[in-house]
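Sanity check

After download, print the first record. It should look like this:
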Amino acid sequence: MPQSFLPYGIIIATCASIIASQALISGSFTLISEAMRLNLWPKIKINYPSIMRGQIFVPSTNFILFAGTILVTLIFRESANMEAAYGLAITLTMLMTTLLFTAYLRLKRVNSFWTILYLVIFLTIELSFLIANLVKFFHGGYVTLFIAGLIMFIMFVWFFGRKIRNRFVDFERLKDYLPLINELSHDTTVPKFATHLVYLTSANNAMQIESKVIYSILQQRPKRADIYWFVHVDVLESPHTMEYSIKFLHDKNIVRVDFRLGFKVEQKINYYFRKVIEEMIQSGEIDVYSRYESLNKNKVIGDFRFVVIEKMISYENKLVFMDKFIMYFFDYLKILSTSEKKSFGLDSSNVLLEKFPILIKGSNVKLKRVPSSNFDYSNIIDTDN
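Expected structure tokens:
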């Protein structure tokens, strides 16, 4: 570039960088958002600055792009050193676009002749580019493959980790347990856990409930409450919808609340739930006051406890090596992702976090019982245990 044209060249290059960066940022946000909807990415916070669902801001992704930009700048130093990484990235992008578009043509049942012709022509060109660019791998191309491989690894672990975990999560017929839960509610021999006990449920059908919820109420530690609440949240395509419905499942001590919230509405379930309670009190639908005599006569509203149940793989499971490998990293990704307690806006002061063991495949162990008089203690190494 001539020295006299250098200032103009810098301005043009700066404008091009701004345009390219905006494309990268918006593209990254969209890809992460869609990956979350397809259960290919851990749940993270998404902000919606406008009423358009496609206009989003992902704080964590924005920070990763910021850190990645600095890291790449420190690694390559000069733009000339980035040619290998950039060239390989463009070639791989073109190749993946061709394969995806071919899959789309097959999905739309386009004539096989035109689909194959398109694939042969573009693959010939792009594979030639790829072979030519492979020599650049050791000159910076490895950075492209490392970043792509890391993203693909996270998606792989999250997708198959969820499949392993959800494969053995069952739903129960709530109708079969309503009488038992009602009896527990009136069983004074069991210490009262809370006046109002609230569970979040993913069951779309009001007469179904996760087995983990039944396990929590009846088995892990019997939880007696005056009123049991099952809360379900649906996220809609509209931006500002805020609706709810109520269904009494057994008299007025087992209640289901369904929230229908727009994608732009922040899920402050704790706050919304209390607003629902206030409206129910005003309409006289339910008595939510404390059942303790001294508090009830003074019209004091009973305490509320939310229970969030986290599924975990039981230690009794015997998984194959690949499943163990996936679940090992899946547990770490869960730590980095947004917790249910935080994503639903629940106050930490009244939330109980429980672990629900998932038994996938137990060991077939056969223990032989012998009379205690015949038991040989001579081979015991550590008598303290």
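If your output differs, re-run the checksum step. Summary of this record's structure: The radius of gyration is 29 Å.
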